[in-house]
Amino acid sequence: MTTVRLVQPSDDPQWLDLRRALWPDCPADRHALEVQQLCASGGAVFLAEDSDGRAIGFAEVSIRRDHVEGTTETPVPYLEGWYVIPEYRRQGIGRMLVEAVEAWARRQGFTELASDSELENHGAIRAHKRLGFREVGREVHFVRTIPRQE
Fold first, then answer.
1. Taking the alpha carbons of 87, 92, 93, 97 in that order, is the dihedral positive or negative?
2. Does any domain span residue 136?
3. pTM
4. CATH number of the domain where residue 73 is located
């Protein structure tokens, strides 16, 4: 039986392992920064566990206070990361995680939940749509390096 609960400080190693599985190219210092930002935002992290207590998935939700495309309110809870290990997929665990995030957001007084996906991640896009998310736009982000003055 799968359970979903809020992450506790003792869960940090398991949570970090799952983060690394979702974002394997993310350097350790970037993971640390993102965790710090998530915690500072007032968000929450949920952990899915199998019947043996093994961490098999997670969902991170931050509170974004800037404009979020397609939303009608600010601030808005934002599903920053959502992952289930491959052997447990297509069993409703991702849905359980999103429902836990939604229930948490509702208790906080929010009426919307936002998220995103990489354009080429068709599986994630389909999963979002199956759970009732509606697509509100597609974009490509750009960054330009500003040379240092000498």
1. positive
2. no
3. 0.89
4. 3.40.630.30
